[in-house]
Amino acid sequence: MDNNKPSVLKVRQGLQEFMTQSREISFGTEFSKEYFDLVNVDIELNNLDLAFNNYKIVNLTDIHIGQWLTPEYLDGVVDYVNTLKPDMITLTGDYVSYILEGYEEDLKNSFKKLKAKDSKLAVLGNHDHWLGAKEIRNILKKANVKDLSNDVYTLKKSGKKDNEEKLLNIGGVDSYTVGADDLNCVLNKLPQEGPAILLAHEPDFAKISSETKRFGLQISGHSHGGQFIIPGTNITPFRGPKSTKYPVGKYKVNNMIQYTSRGLGTNMFWMRINCKPEITQFNLKSREKQKIKIE
């Protein structure tokens, strides 16, 4: 279905407005952390210097403001994330569903309130393009969030053992669904030194990114975890386009870790079954520490 067609968009906007009203009647609008899971994921990266050991990255994805997630809820999420004292915050797309008008200030104000020691980085998702990539990028800019779509951010620290400059690289690709991704551009900007992490809204992009053998981790969303996970498993039977291979959780793709967050919001239907919304905290681990223990 072409979501860019005005007729299709109008129908989906009407459906979103209806679901928003029914959700608010059922659940209200105030944030409660009981509705979310904080998922801690330890990631060992090759060539990660001890200076970055235990480096904390908090990822938010698929906010879809105005549908399941109200502006009040988003403010609550932001306040909670700030209590985690992250070194870096990453945002991996789909900040809207089918309605942007009226939510611009809410997104800007919430994103601006996010506090990270080093940086706030973002890429766009398919819905952001369908609703207006230019407007979304402007919101990110005003909120002091760096748009990392087809770009690279490099963090530098003094090494623990030799005081030489050590690098941690974060790359980002624009939405794979709409064909805006340009991995070659990212690779051309990527320093040869230091481990690299990739932000990509769509998890199935891992098949492409892993083949470069340059990234130790890809962080994605897009799937919402299928919004239904079979009890007793980490398996969802509902897999949308670009999230059929890696729909929820942690995977090994070639020599790269792919992690797919269940995200915060929902699309089309706000119901989740055994699939709570997720805030993900990545704790980076240096293998140098393991070597020291062995020696």
3D structure, described in words:
- The structure is a single chain.
- The chain is an alpha/beta fold and 295 residues long.
- It has a single domain, classed as Purple Acid Phosphatase, chain A, domain 2 (4-Layer Sandwich), CATH 3.60.21.
- Helix content is 27%, strand content 24%.
- The chain is built from seven helices and twelve strands.
- The strands form two sheets. A six-stranded mixed beta sheet has the order 1-12-2-3-4-5. It has a six-stranded mixed beta sheet with strand order 6-7-8-9-11-10.
- Helix 2 (71-83) packs parallel to helix 3 and helix 3 (104-113) packs across helix 4 (126-142).
- The chain is globular, with a radius of gyration of 19 Å.
- The mean pLDDT is 90.
